[in-house]
Amino acid sequence: MSLRPDKGRLGWFAAFVLLLIAAAWLMSAGEPEGQKPAPRVVDFPRGMRQPEWERLERRRTLAARPHTDPTPAPAPSLPRREPPTQDPLLRAFAPAPGRSHIVMEANALRHAPLGQLLIDCLLAQDPGWLDEVKELSGIDPLEDLDRIAVSGENVILTGNFSNARFEDLSGRPYGAHGTIYSSDGDLSLATWRGEMIVMGSGESGELEAAIDRLEGRSPGSPPFAESLSYGEVYGVIAIEELRRLGGGGHDPIFDRLAEVASGIELHVDAMNDFALRAEVHGEDASALEELSRTLGGALSLARLRAKTSGEEEAAEFLSYAGVDRFGGGFAFELALPLENVRKHLEEVCPGPRVEGPAPSLPAD
Amino acid sequence: MRNILHVAADLLREALSRKWFLALGLGITLALATVALSLRLEVVDGALAATRFFGGDLGGRVEAVDVALRAIFQGASWLVFYGGLVFGIVACSDFGPSLLAPGRIELMLSLPIRRVELLVGTWLGVLIVSSLAALYGAGGLALILGIKSGFWTAGPLFAALLAGLSFSAIYAAMLAVSLWVRSAALSAAAGFVVFFAGIAAGYRHALLELFQPGPGQEVFRFLTAGLPRISALGHDAAAIAASQPLEWTPLLLNVAGALVFALACLALATWRFEGRDG
Question: Looking at CA atoms only, how far is residue B154 from chain A in angstroms?
Answer without folding.
Answer: 17
